[in-house]
Specification:
The strands form two sheets. Strands 1, 2, 3 and 4 form a four-stranded parallel sheet that branches. A two-stranded antiparallel ribbon has the order 5-6. The relative contact order is 0.20. The longest helix has 13 residues, at 28-40. It has helices at 28-40, 57-66, 94-98, and strands at residues 15-18, 21-22, 48-55, 71-77, 80-81, 87-88. Helix 1 links the parallel strand 2 (21-22) and strand 3. By secondary structure, it is an alpha/beta fold.
């Protein structure tokens, strides 16, 4: 399990986890590990907000199925993910758009 540094008293705080694209890919496992670390430190699921810019129904379903009280907040829910776990229709390469490449 990766090492995560948390402030003392984190269990008393509301936590916002920013996550750009919530699909169903391998990267999502990192979010799951972080959620488990927070829960093991005493943070209640109800106090965790997963904030994404774009999400696919499959990603939302996977997170909510495993952590039903975590609140998922997104600006857009696209149709689905393709066989490579890319959000469809998506926005292309998010990093390229964000950094204007």
């Amino acid at each position: 399990m990766p090492q995560v540094l948390l402030n003392r008293g984190v269990e008393e705080e509301k936590i916002i986890l920013p996550y750009v694209l919530l699909n169903r890919g391998v990267e999502e496992e990192k979010i799951f590990l972080l959620l488990i670390v927070l829960l093991n430190r005493g943070v209640e699921e109800e106090k965790i907000f997963l904030l994404s810019i774009i999400a696919a129904p499959e990603g939302i379903s996977r997170v909510c199925g495993r952590f039903p009280a975590v609140r998922v907040v997104t600006s857009e829910i696209d149709s689905c993910v393709d066989d490579k776990f890319a959000v469809v229709p998506g926005c292309g390469e998010f990093g390229d758009r964000y950094f204007c490449d």
